[in-house]
Design goal:
The chain is flat, with a radius of gyration of 28 Å. Helices cover about 30% and strands about 20% of the residues. By secondary structure, the protein is of the alpha+beta class. The strands form 3 sheets. Strands 4-3-9-5-7 form a 5-stranded mixed β-sheet. The protein has a two-stranded antiparallel sheet with strand order 1-2. Strands 6-8 form a two-stranded antiparallel sheet.
Length: about 190
Amino acid sequence: MGKCINHPDRETPYICMKHQIYLCEECLKCRDPNVYCKHRPSCPIWFMDKRQETWADEDRQAAATATHTVTFQPQGRTVDIADGTTLLEAAQAADVHLNASCNGKGSCGKCKLIVTQGKVVATQTPLLTEAEQDKGYVLACQSRVTGDVTVTIPEETIQRKLKIAGMGKTVTARLKGWWKRSNPCLKPFP
């Protein structure tokens, strides 16, 4: 941190690597843009100067990008997301657990959702039967949001999650009494 050369009352982290001067955000402009500078790849002033040229365009694009609301039932959680975001990304943003063991590649078929309101653009997949597709099932990782959407996590998915969560107690109860004494492989030092 140093004081801006043009505004000595302002602290700034931006230092020109060639001239060794500090410039605040208002003054960020490379002094030698047309001259070769060996420090340019590591110079934050050069980087920020070039970056500012695209900031206005990015702000306009961000403002023009539509946002949509996705509601997850039965939890009732909602999240606002950008147009074209997948339902899996929306679920992660809303902190809704969806099983996606393939990490969103569309190969496991475990992230099934039912679209109850709204429309999504879903990629065709052999992992959904025709009956499921007729009921509105989609894979969250292969479905992009194009408007406000309400989706339901299927009952069988919720039941499967609860069944797995309770399996440890059942197995422990069945195995109780099988071992009389435990001999650990490691023993503590005396």
